[in-house]
Amino acid sequence: MDKSRLKNAIINAGNRNAALVIKNANIVNVFTEEIIHGDVAIRDGIIIGIGSYSGKEEIDADGAYLCPGLIDGHVHIESSMAHPSRFADCIIPKGTTTIIADPHEIANVCGTDGIQYMLDQTEWLPLSVFFMIPSCVPCTGFETSGAKIVAKDMEQFLSQPRVVGLGEVMDYVATANADGEMLDKIELFKNRPIDGHAPRLTGDSLKAYCTAGPETDHECMTFEEVKEKLALGMRIHLRIGSASRAVEDIMRSIAESNLPTNRIMLCTDDKHLEDINNEGHINYILRRAVANGIPAIKAIQMATINAATTYGLKRYGAIAPGYRADIVLFDNLTDFNPRLVLTNGMVFKPSPEAKMKPDPKIYNSVHIAPRKPECLKLQVNGKMPIIDLLPNELTTLLRYEEVPCENGLFVSDSKLLKLAVFERHHASGRFGLGIVRGIEIHNGAVASTVGHDSHNLVVAGDNDSDMLLAIDVLEECGGGYSVVSQGKVLARIPLPIAGLMSDAPLNKILEMQRKLLDALGSIGSWRSSDPFITLSFLALPVIPEVRLTDMGVFDVTQMKFIVDNQ
Q1: What SS3 state is found at 249?
Q2: Rounded to whole angstroms, how far apart are CA atoms 556 and 566?
Q3: Which of 160, 324, 412, 508 has its CA 20 to 30 A from that of 179?
Q4: The whole model's pTM is what?
Q5: Is 359 helix (H, G, I), strand (E, B) or coil?
Q6: Cα separation of 559 and 543, whole Å?
């Protein structure tokens, strides 16, 4: 807030005539956990009073519920597949006015150029975007990324006012083992928030991890894991994204046990525009929290002031004098369907003009070595490692099984598909091959240059020719997603921004996403959760139990390769 705006707000705080007044509202007070009937006065984007006011402009809330604008405590904009301005246009109408973004997707492709690009492209948005600087680029040494960022590279961002801390520390092994390079990054941000990423970490290993510095976690699988981490001083995000949706049991346990919620927040992490458009964003998680027994005001605190406190966002997350006028009006505190959203004191209206300028360093990111048709042949040697997907979760199970084969080579059947990951940054020619269960594809293939976190090209299918065609399609369009069947391209979505995001208008992106899902559905894939998000996480070697990278099949629990393709 600049000095002149603050001065005007102070002078007019006692003035019963304001520039904008929202009248006759049921105002949710996140400090006292009560609902107050009255008016909210706003001037220059700042709340100057609550009580009885008149204004030059008045909005009659007619008894609806006025809440602080919602905050997504941990999100990767890139996973929406949309330029930040398109992403903002999608989530603000759902009530989200502030996000804590971790740009490690684009950083893994483009390095510090990618981080600067995201800072530049969000500075002018009605959405408040704060950043955590990526801590793990690459996330481990078990895959090939497009860039490497060390502590010295991060120093240039420390003076940025919207940089609030260090992004999720995913290499928990290096962290718990006091690796010098990781500790350099943690030391650089020792006086700022540090996000964690520690699925299933427990006991002494978790204590060592907490001692190192990470303060939050969004990867809890069970209520017991939530309690253990809270007891050690961590703050917890309850996450519902496009693929990770198994948090509702945890919500019920929180409600039943009356667990304190002041250190719990909400986040989406990774959610596609189609899912946001259909069901909601943070407001959807609010809806599920209340449906699972968490009191509405407690849930609203999780979605507002708890996140603002965690990340040091002063004057965000509440309706009170001096706070930024980010406000959402809900019909009720059950469905959380927004009637009206204000950002910085202005009623939100999507802008048809987006200030985008293609950057050659960001837009030309797909560099794959030439491929021979026989490259996808997978030799069978006894029982093979299987990547077994769990429904509605990002975690997998490792199994060893006999698999169908002909002439000593793996052949896909109705349950087992071939999976491949091709290095796509340096045209090294490196690729890994594996077998996955849980993606149902018949006579086709699906491919993507969105492959967390190094974002190599991931492709799954039941025949080699369609898999190779799906790769060719993405190489031609500069990255994205493709679905092919029997030699025909059924659908694709070009993502020219680092192979991760589209600069197309919002409606066009939504249309392409729907066509992708329909195309994948037509060749047999399930629709209970987003298959593209699931596919994109199959290469991330920090989520248990097993993954496939461009270097081979990787056992996450043992932190070693089962099959080494190097």
Answers
A1: helix
A2: 18
A3: 160
A4: 0.91
A5: coil
A6: 11
Over the stretch 453-471, which tens digit does the pLDDT of each residue have? Answer: 899 999 999 999 999 999 9
Beta strand residue intervals within 250-312, DSSP E: 264-267
Distance CA 290, CA 65 (A): 15
What does the chain come to in residues? 566
| CA-to-CA dists, residue 270 to 73, 81, 419, angstroms | 12, 10, 22
Using the structure block, give the residue that is written with the tokens 């693929």.
Answer: 243
For residues 209-223, one letter each, b for 16 or more C-beta atoms within 10 angstroms of the residue's C-beta and e for the rest, the string is bbebbbbbbbbbbeb
pLDDT in tens, 19-57: 899 999 999 999 999 999 999 999 999 999 999 999 999
Q: ω before 453 within 30° of 0 (cis)? A: yes
Q: List the structure tokens of 192.
A: 């700022």
171 in Cβ contact with 77 (< 8 Å): no
The string of pLDDT tens digits covering residues 276-293 is 999 999 999 999 999 999
If phi > 0 it is left, if psi is from -120 to 50 it is alpha, else beta; for residue 171 that is beta
Partners of 552 in the β-ladder: 549, 564
Q: How far apart are CA 240 and CA 177, in angstroms?
A: 31
Cα–chain center distance at 150: 23
Determine if the peptide bond prior to 228 is cis (ω within 30°): no
Strand-pair partners of 196: 169
Cis peptide upstream of residue 505 (ω within 30 degrees of 0): no
Give per-residue burial for 124-149: e unless 16+ CB within 10 Å, then b: ebbbbbbbbbbbbbbbbebbbbbbeb
